[in-house]
Amino acid sequence: MSTLNLPASGAPDGHLVPAAPQQTASGSPRPAAWVAEAIRAVGLRPGDIGVFLLLDLLLVAGAAVLVLTQQVQHPDAFVWGRRLVNQQRGLLMAAALALSGVAALWGLLALWRDRPRGAAAALVVALLGGLGFAVVLGIDLDSKSARRLMPGERFRPNERYVAAHFGVKLPRRVPGAPTGTQAIAAAAPSASAKREVSATKGRTLYMNTCATCHGVTGEGVVGSGRDLRGNVFVAGLDDAKLVDFLKVGRQPWDPANTTNVQMPPRGGNPTLSDDDLRDIAAYLRTMQPQGVQPSASAEAATGTTPTEGTAGSGQAAPPASPPELLVHRSYIDAGAVGPAGLSPTLAERARRPRWAMPADAASYFEMFLTSVGLQVVHVALAVVLTVVGLVALARNGRPLVWRGVAVLACGAWIWAAGTWFVLGNGVYGWV
Q1: DSSP state of 42
Q2: pTM to 2 decimals?
Q3: How many other CB atoms are found less than 10 A from the CB of residue 403?
Q4: Is 342 helix (H, G, I), strand (E, B) or coil?
Q5: Mean per-residue pLDDT, 316-320
């Protein structure tokens, strides 16, 4: 095994070379002394490399702490952003640098055994791994740029892309179709447009909403809802007033309520639209005897006046006031004082789609580019050292210099693989 122990006074090429390194009992050089000798062969001191590694370690640690701080301050942005980044590409970049790191270890072992060809082959494999990292990164950044995920003025994420990563497939836009406010205006029916009322659809809505209290065929349920077949009250209202009644319902304390059971607004189904209520009203008409038309004469026949509207007004009247309470003193302990009602932002959050962008979403992608940029510096340094070492080997000159550069290149690849595990984990959240 070669130990590079040439005379300290000089060398055939006129350059001073270091003295022989310290050896173990078996005659092999100590690893630390062997590495130090290789570093001195390129005109550097081991202390210089130590200072560089310390400064770079502080830089990487600072970047990791910055990412962690931003994650604590903007948790929603990091959860949202990590759903959008391509995890497969991040793992491919990690695998490429892991290959480079393993090849670098193989290269160091070959250098230790004085096998320059094996070391050169290992450096070529490490270089290919670094190039693979660069290619995948380039594809990833180009994809983010195309989908407007790059921070800055162009940060306007593509909605279809974002929704797809949250498991929602938005319909494709038809070329030439109106968008934005134009699409909303086009979708909204005009004031003169009339929708055809469907008793068939009304039957389906009735079965899903009203049949629980009024029965499947409208026969009524004792203690719950009245019989709707041939119902004088229903027959006594025109279609508009019947729909108005379905909108507001009737409270138990209303004098006109003969069951003392609440008729909830919209049948207790707030998702029913006014058009749905018109369909239900049309179906209720089919339950009335043939030849009976809605008219005001039914009101006189029953001796009651519907409370849901006044004649000719077409508007719902407010429900009757509840009767006086019989208990004039509360025996329930007062609860803790706090804000009344639900959170004012609850409804807003409920209306927001799952893929809605947080206000601070750009902070995640700023950290992503910072971490990636720092990693690119590490990979670029390793690539430069590898190319210099391979060129020196190809020229067959200064074997000591070649060996020193090769040692530095192998160390750079191992360092780059380790830093990407730290930086990549911060932005991709692997662990």
Answers
A1: T
A2: 0.55
A3: 24
A4: coil
A5: 43
